Amino acid sequence: MSAVVSLNQEKEKEVGVIGAGLVGCLTALALQKKGYKVILFELRQDPRLKSTKEKNLRSINLAISDRGIKALKYVDENLAKKVLDKVIPMRGRMIHDSKGNQESQLYGLYGESIKSIDRGYLNQELLNEIDIINKSGVGYPIEVLFGKKLINLSFLGEEENPTVTIVDQSSHQEQIFEFDFIVSADGAFSATRHYLQRYVRMTFKQEFIDTCYIELSIPAGPGNSFLIDPNHLHIWPRDKFMLIALPNQNGSFTSTFFSSWELAESLNTDTKILNFFKEHFEDGLKLIGEDNLISSFKNNPKGSLVQIHCNPYNYKGKAILIGDAAHGMVPFYGQGMNCGFESLRILLEMLEKNNFNTEKAFNQYSKERHQDLEVILKLALDNYNEMSHDVTSIVYLMRKKIDSFLGRLLRGKWLPLYTMISFRGDIPYSEAISIEKRQQNIIKKLEAAIFVGTIYAAVKISKYFASKFVK
Amino acid sequence: MSAVVSLNQEKEKEVGVIGAGLVGCLTALALQKKGYKVILFELRQDPRLKSTKEKNLRSINLAISDRGIKALKYVDENLAKKVLDKVIPMRGRMIHDSKGNQESQLYGLYGESIKSIDRGYLNQELLNEIDIINKSGVGYPIEVLFGKKLINLSFLGEEENPTVTIVDQSSHQEQIFEFDFIVSADGAFSATRHYLQRYVRMTFKQEFIDTCYIELSIPAGPGNSFLIDPNHLHIWPRDKFMLIALPNQNGSFTSTFFSSWELAESLNTDTKILNFFKEHFEDGLKLIGEDNLISSFKNNPKGSLVQIHCNPYNYKGKAILIGDAAHGMVPFYGQGMNCGFESLRILLEMLEKNNFNTEKAFNQYSKERHQDLEVILKLALDNYNEMSHDVTSIVYLMRKKIDSFLGRLLRGKWLPLYTMISFRGDIPYSEAISIEKRQQNIIKKLEAAIFVGTIYAAVKISKYFASKFVK
Questions:
Q1: Are strands B203-218 and A203-218 parallel, antiparallel or unpaired?
Q2: Quick check: is A65 in a domain?
Q3: Looking at beta carbons, which residues of chain A come within 8 Å of B261?
Q4: In the listed set A384, A419, A442, which residue is the last one of a domain according to the structure?
Q5: B322 lies in a domain?
Q6: Does B201 touch chain A if contact means CB atoms closer than 8 Å?
Q7: CATH number, domain at B289?
């Protein structure tokens, strides 16, 4: 499973991959290694060209964890190593309260970590890997076409091969490509999905949550030192809004402010922004710096957060949606990319199991993957409350402690949910949530037993004392 | 409100209307009469051209009722008259049981009718009306551009005026148009909606129901006579599937078969089709004819049915979705077009009330219209059960009779739901459903009272008889 050798019996097959983001690039690499001829289309210009370097609108640092790493390794062990060389491990959350106190809450039972990485950097590494593969002369080269907008998708003739119409963003010339099949990783606002819906009776839902994010930054200290612990994901939870910060290799932190749109839009003058941060994030403000805060807050775009649900994800063996195009999610469980990469790994495994019969594999994927995707979408949404509020609640912390205690006591037989999602890529999301439900029931029973036991003991004790002293 | 005079203070404003279907054409006409300069774009070729006459894939005959007529009259009294000249009134459902018996169930309390009309015919009439307006020289002519595909929509600059990129389907040349605002009526698979979602945090859901439809037809009898009663909507309800038929002016009926996809796809040979119809629709089969049935069943496309939910419908005062693009619905309440026309009327009224300030009007529309649209979407879906199953249930028929009885008894104070939806365009959908809930509670209490009263009487009577005869 880990060493990828070409098992593909039908080497001449041509595949279009739509979208050269993280999942699209990895898909192109994976399919090339399976022996397919791949053309990779991207709407934007090459992000590595200085002339076209655009403001990356999606630069929340990513936390790569077990599912993402597993998929990278599945595609290429060396690629995984290269990527992991450039990450910063985060072993827990660092909670900053309003008085400036910090408290560490570890993610794993044994010091496991999720790994902070810059999205743009990872994307460029994946594109570089394509160049390396192409230069190696092994297999068909991957053709990467930037600045190409998909404006139509149809499935024509007896074969129903996907026919993709592309417009060059500079010349405005149309080009038409026919493939054996396409894999679309063109993001939450997927154009492919739009056209696919003319062929597939696809249940589809997109839901925006009333949360806006604004990207901020904490500069590095003297000599590229970290001003706060680099091995934590820092959170300033304030219930209805929060600030977070993830470390970068150069000593800086990428920070993000989350709040309701109403609140974010009401902070529209320098004074309002400053006063708000002074009141709620005094230590955060010192780290960010006043001028830096004001300029970022006013100039950086306000981002929206959307959840995407589809079912099914494919049209026969001819087209399939993957990544955010199929299951875009809010970032609060740090699973967006990890889940997208995992989806690719699972899809590839199904292709292998079905002897590269795409119709069987794609149908199986739609059928079996759906429940896992629905679970992680729900977890991602629910985790906003956990991050912004629950982490400060006594009941939450007590439960978490019992959970960790049992996790260590019953090593391997009791798995905290976070451990299963982030550090146990071998457990499907849907199975993780079933195990968690069972465990939570046990904890609740334990709590009830402790409650009853305590009351019983209290009654006994007071009776004893009563009998002793009151007569 | 009925006579349309231009109240528009800003006569130079240019509007793009996307989609020249029923709602799009009526929108173009309405806005022209308000003094706007309108360009109307349509993906397909002019349906009136013989050379391009395509198979109309959506030829379920429509039932126009009060809300649709009200909107037509609002735009143009004469146009409404022209349209109503060509309809066939249907005063009730004619239920065909499996033995060939027919039973009429009237729609209204006083012989009100919904009106059968061919979708294609109505569309052409609306296009002809545009030609008439253009020739009249009154106001700005409406420019109608056929064969134009929308491939981008953006809102650029300070003004954020909508910029629409169009590709000509023959020459493949791109053209760019800037408008003051656009109204999009480009159907359930709206391309505009796709691009709009990059600007609007739009909650969006599309749900396919597991029902497939196949268009059939019942030819006219000798001398263009009707073979069954022309003033009914004929239904052959068979629980999990059904056949319906709506009259045409030439003596024929447009008939539609609805079933699960599995069933429809299993009827894949001449024999299977024939045997199925012989078993379940014996009288229907005689009307359609065996050869006609087989050729229609095999050659006509299998249609899918989708429900579209959005919220909000607009981007500031710059773009708004209307009709199926905003609220596509299954055809079972006969409200799709009626609701789309009503949406237009309400939007126009809000424009007038807000002195043609589109931002205020569009925001108000999104806010106030949403609850009504959600109600009719739910009613449309629920009505499949009513048409295919409930109409044969004794409890349903009893309740319906009580409902009609009270409706006639308490004239105007008690309104059956169907009456409110189809014949009382002055009652918003959401209000109709509130009234219905109140009335149904009363009916349930009545039933309970009758039940208790009956038991009480039975006990009294049996006690009386017991005391008389048993001692």
A1: antiparallel
A2: yes
A3: 201
A4: A384
A5: yes
A6: yes
A7: 3.30.9
Say if CB B61 and CB B248 are below 8 A apart: yes
Instruction: Determine, for residues B201 and A306 on separate chains, whether the beta-carbon distance falls below 8 Å.
Output: yes
Residue A166: closest C-alpha in chain B: B151
Confirm whether B69 is domain-assigned: yes
- A105, A396 in Cβ contact below 8 A? no
Domain with B298, as residue range(s), is: 207-304
Residues A54 and A197 in one domain: yes
Nearest residue in chain B measured CA to CA from A197 = B189
pLDDT in tens, A193-227: 999 998 999 999 999 999 999 999 999 999 999 99
With beta carbons under 8 A apart, name residues in chain A contacting B189: 194, 197-198
Residue A98 carries which side chain, given as an amino acid letter? S
Looking at the structure, tell me whether residues B46 and B33 fall in a common domain: yes
Q: Same domain, yes or no, for B131 and B192?
A: yes
Residue B461 is assigned to a structural domain of this protein: no
Please identify, among A304, A331, A355, the residue that sits at the C-terminal boundary of a domain. A304
- The CA distance from B140 to B142, in Å, is 6
Residue A64 bridge partners (DSSP)? A115
Is the model's pLDDT at B82 over the cut of 80?
yes
pLDDT beyond 70 at A9: no
pLDDT higher than threshold 90 for residue B400 = no
Distance CA B359, CA A285 (A): 37
Mean pLDDT, rounded, of chain A: 91
In the numeric block, which tokens belong to residue A122? 């990872």
Same domain as A197, residue A316: yes
The per-residue pLDDT for range A377-421, each reduced to its tens digit, is 999 999 988 887 787 788 888 888 888 888 888 888 899 999 999
Is the pLDDT assigned to residue A109 strictly greater than 80? yes
**Same domain? B56 vs B181:** yes
Please say if the pLDDT value at position B291 is more than 90: yes
Q: For testing the chain A interface, which of B189, B208, B211 should be mutated: the one with the most A CBs within 10 Å?
A: B208
**A 33-62: CB under 8 A from B:** none
Mean pLDDT for the stretch of residues A361-372? 98
- Specify the pLDDT at position B300: 92
Distance from CA of B209 to the nearest CA of A (A): 9
- Tell which A residues from 206 to 235 touch B, by Cβ distance under 8 Å: 206-208
Spell out the residues 6+ positions from residue B358 whose beta carbon is closer than 8 angstroms to its own.
B180, B181, B317, B318, B351
Does the CB of A175 have a partner CB in chain B at under 8 Å? Answer: no
CA angle, B128 then B134 then B140, to 5°: 135
Q: What is the pLDDT of chain B when averaged over all its residues?
A: 91
Pairwise CB contact (< 8 Å): B151 & A172? no
